[in-house]
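lol so apparently i was supposed to do this last week
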Amino acid sequence: MKIICIGRNYADHIKELENERPDEPVIFMKPDTAVVQKQFPFVIPEFSNDVHHEVEVLVKINKVGKYIDAKFAHKYYDEIGLGIDFTARDVQAKLKDKGLPWEKAKAFDGSAVVGDFLPKTEFADLQNINFELTNNGEVVQQGNTSLMLWKIDELVAYASQYFTLRTGDIIFTGTPKGVAAVKEGDVLEGSIEGKKLFRIQVK
Ligand code: MG
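anyway here it is w/ magnesium ion bound
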């Protein structure tokens, strides 16, 4: 199983990090070892003092696909979920400065929270889904998939031009604004349209 992540897919988040608006989707990957096991806490890694939460809508691939046309992309997933793309922002800033790959900042053990999934048929419009992240009960990130620069089907199609998609692969579709550092003792809870899909403690 692989995790394909999209960066800079919400204009308000691009602004908050003072990034350039990309001409095509920004893609990076996380290995399967990045996934936090269910019921386990997220442990802040020793190499970072500034790990940020990025709540993101997830898409779970349901069959093998390559060179998928955007108009058929909807056939390659049945479930939508929510997760966190944990990012060691201090490490990423150094790598970005030097034009180096982001893996150490983005793909480390525990950097991916994969919450529960819902059948996509539960949503009238996948490009109008509200989602949010709370930290210790307070809303810290709120988004709606209508604000994506590239829609879910476009992302599936785009990623499949480079990487064969397989059953069980997960696409992280980018984060809205509100990213911030986590600290020991935080409890992060994510929900889509009021349905809680994960709860994770920070240690
Ligand atoms: Mg992200």
